[in-house]
Each structure stands twice: as C-alpha cells, then as structure tokens.
Amino acid sequence: MRIKILKGFILGLLANATGTFLYVYFFSDKQFEYVVEKGIEQGFMGSLIGLGALLNVLLFFFFLTGRIGKFRKPVQPYEARGVIMATILAAFVVLYFEF
Q1: How high is the mean pLDDT of the chain?
Q2: Model-wide pTM > 0.90
Q3: Residue 29, CA distances (Å) to 22, 23, 33, 55, 84 in order
Q4: pLDDT grade, residue 67 (50/70/90)?
Q5: Among residues 95, 22, 26, which one has the least CA distance to residue 54?
C-alpha cells in the first residue's frame, strides 16, 4: 500500500514538472532556465508551478478510471491518493512562492 502511494506521489511530482516544462516550452520563446530564473526574480514562479499541476488532474483521473476506450484496467485508488498528495505539496510550494 505505501509503495503504491509513493508511486503515485512520484508520478504526480513528475507530471507537475513535465507540465511546467511543457507550458514554458509552448508558450514562451525563451529558454526554460531563463524563464525559471526570471520567475523566481519577478515572482511568477508559483504561477508556473500551478499551471504545471494541471497534468496532475489527468493523472488522477487516469488512476481512478477502470476503462479507457475498449481497454479495461484495474482502478488504482492508492496511486490516485499519492497524486493528490503531490498536488497538495505543489499547492504549498505555490503559496511559498506567492507570499
């Protein structure tokens, strides 16, 4: 059980980081490192992390659905719980960077 929650937590953190990177890649003409550096300096890093957390919603519902198209898979509530924990951690990080 704890391993499953840890798996969901790590996947949630990876989804958040990937979402942040994809947002910067598609909606900015600058390099990722430059945007992160300016985000910390100018105070919009929390917004970047918050936008990156949108992928956690997809991951959460992926773990809770038992059917994807024609394919059946087992519902994974413990992994979904880990994703929620990663999202809560991201919310605290956003609060830290915003205030």
Answers
A1: 93
A2: no
A3: 12, 11, 12, 22, 31
A4: confident
A5: 22
